[in-house]
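Case study.
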Amino acid sequence: MDLRESTGDLSFRDEVRTFLEDSLGSDFAVVRGRGGPGDEHALFDERLAWERHLGAHGWTCVGWPVEHGGRGLTLRRHVIYYEEYARARAPGRLGIVGEGLLGPTVIAFGTPEQQRRFLPAIVAGDELWCQGYSEPNAGSDLANIATRAERDGDDWVVHGQKVWTSLAHWADWCFVLARTSPPADPRRRHAGISYLLVPMRQAGVEIRPIVQMTGDSEFNEVFFDGALTAAANVVGAVDEGWKVAMGTLAFERGASTLGQQLAFRNELDAITAAARRNGAAADPVVRQRLARAHIGLEIMRLNALRTLAGSESGTLGRAAMVGKLYWATVHRDLGELAMDVLGADATVCQDAGDAGYDPDPLQRLFLFSRADTIYGGSNQIQRNIIGERALGLPKEPR
Ligand SMILES: Cc1cc2nc3c(=O)[nH]c(=O)nc-3n(C[C@H](O)[C@H](O)[C@H](O)COP(=O)(O)OP(=O)(O)OC[C@H]3O[C@@H](n4cnc5c(N)ncnc54)[C@H](O)[C@@H]3O)c2cc1C
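After joint prediction, the assembly is written out as follows.
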């Protein structure tokens, strides 16, 4: 594969850059650099307007097929889009779960009716989604979920509790893993689980925010107490939702992260600027760590290129499995470097009155990047996946 950008790629890059600069330079200047992990609470109304602005101009869901409202971009152009998005410091996307996880899942596994019902509202930024997988006793061991759904006439009735549900407080819909049949064989707990699409704004759903280290509440506990959803809102076959759930996880760990070294690069630039300002850059050890961080980001970029090289068909291969483990670790280390560069100043936060404290962007980076090695599959689980699926090592004893 020739990794140089073609004339078409370069002009596509220009097109994305021009659109973002025009939009963020005027009406949407206020959202520049806001939102995203660690700053997710910021400027909801303004970012929702941004989401709809992107949708109206065809800049959401760019990797989806054209017939589903996307641009049908190749993986390479998809990455160019993410790179330019990060370079422009465009805001964290409110529609990220719908666009990155649920949409591709409905395209791959959903019925034509489900595709017609759910995809246009994601493209337009009209409906936001959250992911209802984890429970108090089911995280890495996801098949242990206890949330259950039963058929009652034309509806499913859902009971149970989810936890760590990001953005549930803003979501219109949740894709919920629920047990619809007991497993016939206790060694095959993956059977009997269904993938339900459940509306969030109803009496049977209670959302309780969880306060994080940053002082904000980006995720929640979600309680389903007789929540209803229509019988047709099952993706894939009833009792066979595990395959669909794993498909969603592959999307979560896949292409959407390939361009993010540029977002991390913005953070490293801020850390380097802070080191220059406060004199930390004169310390040879700090200089060495800044250099190491730079190398880490370069390796991310090269791994992204390697992933692309093996994926002309649009699917991601083994190199992508390494990606999640690598970027999560690089990002966590970047947060630690930021704190060491700031020194004693790192321990002091802005007083935010009733809201408690308000960490600055580098403090947020440190606090939030702890989560990177946990969500979407913890580092240990990623190592298992690499061992078993990429290297063909014997399976972990169950
Ligand atoms: C910021 C953030 C956002 C999240 N958003 C969502 C969301 O929107 N929706 C959702 O459903 N979930 C969400 N999660 C939950 C996330 O998916 C889980 O935290 C994750 O899967 C780990 O599960 P757990 O927290 O139950 O930890 P556990 O599974 O209890 O793991 C605890 C520790 O044991 C290790 N461990 C567990 N099993 C093994 C094993 N077999 N081999 C080796 N080590 C093992 C883990 O690596 C970890 O270090 C989010 C989490 C975070 C941090």
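Observations recorded in class. The chain has a mean pLDDT of 91. The first strand starts at residue 129 and ends at 132. We will return to this complex in the next lecture.
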